[in-house]
């Protein structure tokens, strides 16, 4: 499932707007697992003021 996320980081107040791809596993008609895949993890970490790796 491709989703567009619109959010705001609590720690910094910065707005986030990014695509996310999620795979869903359904068992017996219920969602059993969600695996998110982010395109730009650096932008998310930056908006949340988390330290990023430089290597």
Describe the protein in words.
The protein has one helix and three strands, in the order βββα. It is 13% helix and 53% strand. The chain has 55 residues and is mainly beta. It has one helix spanning 41-47, and strands at residues 2-8, 15-27, 30-38. The chain has one domain. β2 (15-27) and β3 (30-38) form a beta hairpin. The chain is elongated and about 40 Å long. The chain has a three-stranded antiparallel beta sheet with strand order 1-2-3.
Shape descriptor: elongated
Provide a count of the helices.
1
**Can you give the helix content as a percent range?**
10-25%
**Average residue-wise pLDDT:** 86
pLDDT < 50 runs, ≥5 residues: none
> How is the main sheet built?
3 strands, antiparallel
Order of helices and strands: EEEH
How many domains in all?
A: 1
Sheet-strand content, in percent, reads over 45%
Radius of gyration: 14 Å
Structural class: mainly beta
Overall number of strands:
3
Strand order of the largest sheet: 1-2-3
Task: Please report the distance between the alpha carbons of the first and last residues.
Answer: 31 Å
